[in-house]
Amino acid sequence: MLHKITVACEQHESRMHDFFEQQYKNYLEDGWCVFDRDDVLLDWIATALPEARRTVADPANDFWFRHGRTWFAGVNALNNDSSGAVNRGMPIDGAAIAFIRKQFQLNKIVLDKAQISVYYPGYPQHSAEEKDAAFGYRLRRDAAHVDGLLPIGEDRRRFLREHHHYVLGIPMVEASEDAAPFVIWRGSHKIVRSALSAILEQQDESLWNDIDVTETYQQSRRAIFEQCERVELPLKPGQAVIAHRLSLHGSAPWGKTATAGSDGRMICFFRPPTLTATDWLRMP
Fold first, then answer.
1. What is the C-alpha separation between 245 and 281, in angstroms, rounded?
2. pLDDT-derived band of residue 64, with 50, 70 and 90 as boundaries?
3. What 3-state class would DSSP assign to 40?
4. I need a labelling partner for 250 at 20 to 30 A (CA). Which of 125, 128, 169, 269 fits?
C-alpha cells in the first residue's frame, strides 16, 4: 500500500512539474498564463470578498471612483497582509501561488495590498477631468498600459516609478464574458523590454526613475497594436491570471449585453515589487 501511495505521489508531482513548465512557457512567450478553477482560491475569496465589498462601499473611498462612477480604481485598497490574508483569515494559496513560488524561485511570497478594480455597466463614461484623446484611447484601446510607467505632472510624461515582479489577478465575482474583461497583447512584453532597454541601460540604474520614457513608451504601444494579437481574458472566480510585468494590458469597455451582479466585474490585482529596477527590466 505504501508503495502505491509513493508511486501516486510521484506521478502527481510529475504531472504538476509538466503543467508548471508549460504554464511558464506560456508566461515567457505570450506574456501571461491562466489557472483554471481552484477550490483553494475560492476559499480565499470567501474570506476576502466581504472586506472588498466593505471597502468599495465605504464613503471614505469615494475618491477611487472614476468615469461617472463606472470604475472603482481601488489601488492598494484591500486591507490584506503580506500573505494575502484579510482580517486574519487564510493566506492566498493554490496552484497559481505554487507556480509563482516554484517558477520564480521564491522561498517566501510577499504580497502588496491588492488593488480592488471594479467595473460597472456603462464603463467608460467621459469624465470632466479626462481629455478627449485620453477618453478615446480608453474607449478604443482598452486604456492599455504597462504598470509602473507612471504619468507625471500636467503633461503626464512617463517615468519608471514602480517596478513589479508580476501581476496576479484574481476575479472575485461572477460576470459575463463581455463585462469589461481583462485584455492583454500577446508578446507585448518583448517589445517593451527591447525598447526600454535601449534607453534605460545607457544610464546608471540610480538615474532610471528620472529618465523621461514617454516617446519610447508611445512608440512601443503603437508597434504592439500593429504587431501583437489583442486577447480578451474573461475570468471566473476560482481562476487566476499571472501577467508579465512588462506586458501591455487593460480592460475592455462594458459590453452592450454584459451582465453582472451588484458587485460589477471585480478583480483583485497584486503587484509585488522587485528588488531593483534592473530586476524589473532584465528578469525573465
1. 9
2. very high
3. helix
4. 128
15 part of a folded domain: no
Query: Within 13 Å of residue 13, how many CA atoms lie on the same side as its CB?
Result: 7
Q: Which residues contact 67 (CB under 8 A, 6 or more apart)?
A: 123, 124, 125, 126, 127, 130, 138
Q: Is residue 153 part of a domain?
A: yes
Residue with cell 483569515: 89
Is residue 236 one of the residues assigned to a domain?
yes
Give the pLDDT band of residue 1 (cuts 50, 70, 90).
low
Please name every residue paired with 267 in a beta bridge, in sequence order, or none if there are none: 117, 171
Of the candidates 243, 252, 231, 251, which has an alpha carbon nearest to the alpha carbon of residue 185?
231
Task: Give me 106's grid cell.
Answer: 521564491
**CA angle, corner 61, sides to 59 and 67, nearest 5?**
100
Which ranges of the chain does DSSP label H, i.e. alpha helix?
A: 2-30, 39-57, 95-103, 132-141, 188-200, 214-227, 277-282
Give the angle 248-249-253 at the CA atoms, nearest 5°.
140
Structural domain boundaries enclosing 112:
31-282
**What average pLDDT score do residues 9-36 get?**
90
